[in-house]
């Protein structure tokens, strides 16, 4: 039988500050055209080999 997944702990103190600083610093950044093409290529490759049965 599977064990329950523990809750993710809340960030506090220095870890929370670092996380929020990173979020604010990167909030305006967008993926480049090359990154989008790489992501799309990888998505298509995975889609071609994945076989999911939806009910």
Structural class: mainly alpha
Helix percentage:
55-70%
How can the largest sheet be summarized? Answer: none
The total of beta strands comes to 0
Topology, element by element:
Elements: H1 13-26, H2 33-49
Key structural traits:
mainly alpha; single chain; 55 residues; 56% helix
Outline the structure in words:
By secondary structure, the protein is mostly helical. It is built from 2 helices and no strands.
In short:
The protein has 55 residues and is mainly alpha-helical. Helices cover 56% and strands 0% of the residues.
